[in-house]
Description:
Elements: E1 10-17, E2 23-28, E3 35-40, E4 45-49, E5 55-60, E6 66-71, E7 77-82, E8 87-91, E9 96-101, E10 108-113, E11 119-124, E12 129-133, E13 139-143, E14 150-155, E15 161-166, E16 171-175, E17 180-185, E18 192-197, E19 203-208, E20 212-217, E21 222-228, E22 236-239, E23 246-250, E24 253-258, E25 263-269, E26 275-281, E27 284-291, E28 294-301, H1 356-361, E29 363-366, H2 369-376, H3 452-455, H4 465-472, H5 476-499, H6 502-511, H7 515-528, H8 533-547, H9 552-578, H10 587-614, H11 619-630
Antiparallel strand pairs: 1-28, 2-3, 3-4, 4-5, 5-29, 6-7, 7-8, 8-9, 10-11, 11-12, 12-13, 14-15, 15-16, 16-17, 18-19, 19-20, 20-21, 22-23, 23-24, 24-25, 26-27, 27-28
Helix pairs in contact: 5-6, 6-8, 7-9, 8-9, 8-10, 9-10, 9-11, 10-11
Amino acid sequence: MAAASTTKISWRLQEFEAHSSSVSCLALGKSSGRLLATGGEDCRVNIWAVSKANCIMSLTGHKNPVECVQFNMSEEQVVAGSQSGSIRVWDLEAAKILRTLMGHKANITSLGFHPFGDFLASSSLDTNIKLWDVRRKGYVFRYKGHTQAVRSLAFSPDGKWLASASDDCTVKLWDLTQGKTITEFRSHTAAVNIVQFHPNEYLLASGSCDRTIKLWDLEKFTMIGSLEGDTTPVRCIFFSPDGSCVYSGATDSLRVFGWEPDRCFDVVPVGWGKVSDLAVCNQQLIGVSHQLSSVSSYVVDLKRVKKSGGSVIQGIIQDNQPLSEPKDPKGVALRRNYERPTTTCSSQRRSPSEDEADEKLSSAEIHNAEDYKEIFQPKNAICRSTVRLHLFAPPTVVSCAKRPAPSAVGPSSSDPPTFRPPPPQPPVTTAKSKPQPKIILSTRNEPIGLNVADFLPVSLKPLSDEEALSQIKKGHDTMCVMLSSRHKNLETVRAVWAREDIKSALDTAVSMNDLSIVVDILNIINLQSLWKLDLCTSILPQIDKLLQSKYESYMQTGCTSLKLIMKHFWMLISDTLKASPCVGVDITREERHQKCRACCKQLKNLSNIVKNKAAQVGRHGSAFKELQLLMAPLDDSL
């Protein structure tokens, strides 16, 4: 029976005996949040439905206590590592073992499936990390560098990188294809327990025994946040599905954090003790923990948990003084998104293990036939990523598309081991999906519009070199004229700046009606912190255009400029407009009042744009959500 807690936000769902001896590890299926795997000192791996206390399947074969378990992305396979260093992979649909992997010399401490390939990563107390091809017996790569036990592994959503967290207080980022370290993060002061990638952006989070969560920018390889507040070591972290916040699981508590700026949205007391894993299912966060031979599952209602909140805006400066020191505007950085292939709800079926002797020793005992057929029946496989059921509602079987026939058997074990991530596939579009406005990214792997085929006429006969060059050069003169004009305009602005002041230079740039010139000047002002209230009156109308531009670099500059204006001038604007009229004539004060009134009007207009943009999904939406927080005081009437 589920025992309700005194609070309506969180409650205990189940508590049951999971093994005949002590439970040593457990893991939730991250795609659905509805499956649970437990490993015990009885050398078994048991599979459960989160909302039921009946074991669906028991997997045997290990001869030593199971130390680590993990589901793959589709939750059709489970991997378990033992105290001896052996690893076994089971196909849950076929109810048999796929592969036994031998190679580690000590306890397995962490396991992770590649997001869309036949690869598996493992770590051990022997400090080594190994990448395995499940179709073969040997490992593909071995990654060495940590000096103490590796506690957590995570693949990037695009499948190109692997992150590792260790007792040596470091987090390492590995290039899978090169087998080398990309970078190492060293800001933690105690053992790092968990590491996880942001679901969309180039961002990595790590939780440590130093009671902090560190956030790392994977484009600049710098720390952009340190989330503090946990009173015990951080044991689990989990990004919300939309990537807007991160959940931190510690002893008997759940914290909801935001970053840029660092802030804690909510703290929820949960009696789960030393929580071992987190997942999200249908607006509910599931947490699981174990003690001796029993396992407990808890539910937190995310609809009642705060996942946003206002931030304190500090730093008031005078309108006639520049900023005292440069500050790096980080809060609205638009990070790259991962490019990943489109995956289906079910992966291809693999051939069973070739080791017949191992198959005889390893077996899957099905304890609950109904639940097994419901969840793992190959003919009616659950497309778990699309299930939107309430946790206590009876499960519904959603029929997926017919599985493709198994392809030819992979390379033989005699072939040299190589790591080849699956090639990206074109995204699947549906009739219901709305086309998103095209955003031209600021960082690209190839130039825009320079596909040679676009410049060549459609002809059946091949062109000579001279004819091809002539076609390509057609737009060259036009481009040269555009670049020359831009250079001339920049020289004009520079001359005005040197002869008069920055305000005149900015007004000159605005009068040219060329946003590229405005962006160039704004980047200099932001970098050197040259902001004054006079500049705000001129630039706020231009920021309106930048925020709605199709160029990502323009949006970035507009967001950065607007953040600095709000951060350093809003209190001055607000206090000036709220101040009672003074006795006598104060021309300086009247001028400041007029400037502040004009700025406030423009800021209110921009606030509406920011609110609309904040509804977007992905990194652009995240940047505008941050701006929305900063502009929250505008909602109060002045």
